[in-house]
């Protein structure tokens, strides 16, 4: 007999048919009702055991976490909230789960406890829902770009380039620790290392993606990136997945359009394709919020927030306008900001971004045309000589979710900026080549995938939206 | 006016309409015909310049590699092999390309030269076709799994586990070279390193994927993996992308079915969706083959090979049968194998795999039930006590493209094997937990994505199917 998934059976109306299913026991109550889950959906199927005719020893082995194989008859369910159930005719224990030892019991566990058991936490409703949404969201990303003529590019993870400038890097080497060979001058002899040079883990695939955009037109990356920063926050990971589209002949306006359309499209995809998981997460979010002090509670529910983003235009505001708003804002005047906004040129902190998004505009905001002094060397200088064509997309509860720019396409201006940064031109010879040969306006952005998953699932800590989080002092599993 | 892509225009029949397009000049001949490409397709659109009414200075700047913006009228083409062309009314040079300096001229370049210019090689027909096919193949992978109920799992890239056992690893650290702090006992004090322990780049996500399969049922990974092996061959990369599905309640037969169905499905996808690129690569392949000695030539063309794999069953052969065939084969008897096959238990070399696939069966082959002694610790021991439920899928011209197995689900047997390998149980506590709590039969495989791209594109060297290859002594860009 074909084994069906729980998701298939719950949608089925083949009443009185014999069916087979395999999964794990979530709960077993009244010596009779098994709530069975196989990961195909957040919903369990109820399997009703004829306990009077079942061996007691077998009944005792039906415990939370046990793997079982069940055959029986699909019938209309008597209980409410479920359409079908299985009257069990055959039950086999595939793998026991000793209730005295199994860590994932049907009760509330602390998030920290679950992180320590990251290999098992996906067996809970919350984490299985989060990880299915994460998977669907990943697919939505690929689908969006592929259907819009983008080519997926795998930029290198190990990089010999140290000019990316986006943050602290991890060293990659095959030298034994403290046994790297030295040159005659007493320096580390990297020519003897695996790649014959110093190498690090990438902090961004942007520069390499640009080389592909200048040939294939529209490209995107979606891969792991790394920051060796000692940030123990709910918003930072040392290893995270980033999405970086890059498009030739596209200016900053096109870039803003693309980022908005992209985010709306992938969120609409999960709203359409992850209904059960999101319904569960929506309830979970409401419960979490209800335990916060009134002032900190989200004004919208999870599903409401997602629909709001999909249905409304992002507000586009120049940095200069934003500074005006912030300078004249109540919290600034009442000195409630930790970093008061006094003058044009200040870098915006999380508190300012949150004020603009959550209090002032009450919708996603795209800030653009930032001061050149606080942005990266590769961003296109505006004619005013002091701002660059940068943009950040700011989201409620998350802060910066996208950072992007039109890239400096003029060889002379780019060289000047590189020199001013103290980067050697020969380090970026290939990047400069793009400006030497057939240069053109082009733009792109980076989106931290985990922040998007956080937004879509309502999870407060970024460590809970990636299977095995890497953070300072933590690389278990 | 909306700017159209070359792909859109070539499919368009809006004759006598005004159109706009941006792209790069591939060739410019007779001071009149621009072959324009924007990366959206391998095909160029011909743009006809009214050279008598065009400034000579401007004409001189229309060189190979230059970025141009063109407006004009779409008309039926006079030339053969193309349906439409553009009569140029406006031409703007966006970025010049000095013909004395631009490395990518319209002539045959050596593959080695192009590798050294990996940032520009994607501007050639061959590499743009390969990279578009690679992108489509990536999407086909996600599409196949998502449509079949699998969840995408991002297993960690930086791993604290050193028991994966699939090969030499790269160290990841934030210690300055030769300046790692020591403990009182004079050992490296990894507690002071970023993660508080020794960490490496992953060689496989399988063990972590198993934890997710035992909760979500069907999962797959698709991410970068690393081998620090000094292999300077046309088949090895230090950084490559791997696909690893893992399925609960699936045995080795199911695993063989899955691998065959998966490969056929993704190849069928590119046959359907990359017709122009594959037609070009098919011709290229034929040309390359024609330059080889008769005996080394492929018996089939590229498209023919792809269709053959999609349309025919893979031959399933046990290791024991394969050894019999090899022992009695002509090359073995005539001592033509570098490694003669004398007895059961021998590890198969590339020459043996190629004989089976290319000479004996003349189709893809799945070998299964290998001797336990030559396979990994986590593979399910058969009842004979000497073979394991392992499988390898062997492809013509490529060799091993898939390696997989049913996993050992019995705690006691797994512990025995781990101990026999000298791995400490506490290193794999979480992996053993899967066998303690609700264990079940499960299986999976790994497929090196670049080998699949090689097969799909007919490229002979694996360095030519990934944008920026990482190999010993090479991490440029």
UniProtKB/TrEMBL annotation, chains A, B:
One of its GO terms (molecular function) is asparagine-tRNA ligase activity. It is found in: Cytoplasm. The keyword RNA-binding does not apply. Residues 131-467 form the Aminoacyl-transfer RNA synthetases class-II family profile domain. The keyword Manganese does not apply. Belongs to the class-II aminoacyl-tRNA synthetase family. HAMAP family: Asn_tRNA_synth. Homodimer. This is Asparagine--tRNA ligase. The gene is asnS.
């Amino acid at each position: 007999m074909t084994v069906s998934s729980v998701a298939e059976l719950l949608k089925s109306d083949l009443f009185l048919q014999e069916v087979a299913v395999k999964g794990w026991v979530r709960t077993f109550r009244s010596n009779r009702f098994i709530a069975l889950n196989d990961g195909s959906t957040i919903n369990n199927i109820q399997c009703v055991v004829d306990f009077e005719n079942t061996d007691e020893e077998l009944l005792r082995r039906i415990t939370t976490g046990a793997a079982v194989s069940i055959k029986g008859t699909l019938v209309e369910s008597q209980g409410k909230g479920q359409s079908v159930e299985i009257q069990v005719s055959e039950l086999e224990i595939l793998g026991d789960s000793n209730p005295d030892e199994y860590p994932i019991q049907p009760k509330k566990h602390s998030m920290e406890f679950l992180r320590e058991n990251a290999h098992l936490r996906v067996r809970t409703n919350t984490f299985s829902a989060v990880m299915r949404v994460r998977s669907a969201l990943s697919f939505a990303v690929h689908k969006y770009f592929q259907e819009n003529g983008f080519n997926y590019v795998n930029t290198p993870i190990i990089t010999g380039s140290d000019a990316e400038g986006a943050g602290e890097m991890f060293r990659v080497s095959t030298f034994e620790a403290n046994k790297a060979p030295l040159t005659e001058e007493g320096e580390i002899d990297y020519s003897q290392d695996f790649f014959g040079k110093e190498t690090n883990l990438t902090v961004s695939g942007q520069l390499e993606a640009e080389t592909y955009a200048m040939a294939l037109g529209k490209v995107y990356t979606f891969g792991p990136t790394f920051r060796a920063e000692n940030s123990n926050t709910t918003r930072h990971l040392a290893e995270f997945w980033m999405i970086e589209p890059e498009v030739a002949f596209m200016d900053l306006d096109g870039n803003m359009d693309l980022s908005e359309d992209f985010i709306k499209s992938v969120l609409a995809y999960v709203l359409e394709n992850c209904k059960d998981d999101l319904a569960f997460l929506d309830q979970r979010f409401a419960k979490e919020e209800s335990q916060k002090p009134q002032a900190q509670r989200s004004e919208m529910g999870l599903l409401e927030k997602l629909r709001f983003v999909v249905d409304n235009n992002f507000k586009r505001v120049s940095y200069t306008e934003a500074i005006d708003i912030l300078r004249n804002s109540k919290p600034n005047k009442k000195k409630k900001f930790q970093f008061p906004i006094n003058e044009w040129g200040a870098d915006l902190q999380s508190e300012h971004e949150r004020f603009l998004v959550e209090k002032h505009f009450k919708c996603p905001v795209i800030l653009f045309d930032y001061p050149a002094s606080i942005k990266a060397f590769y961003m296109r200088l505006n004619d005013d000589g002091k701002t660059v064509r940068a943009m950040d997309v700011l989201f409620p509860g998350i802060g910066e979710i996208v950072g992007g720019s039109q890239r400096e396409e003029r060889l002379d201006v780019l060289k000047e900026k590189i020199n001013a940064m103290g980067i050697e031109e020969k380090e970026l010879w290939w990047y400069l080549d793009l400006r030497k040969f057939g240069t053109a306006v082009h733009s792109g952005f980076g989106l931290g995938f985990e922040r998007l998953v956080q937004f879509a699932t309502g999870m407060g800590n970024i460590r809970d939206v990636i299977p095995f989080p890497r953070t300072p002092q933590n690389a278990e599993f």
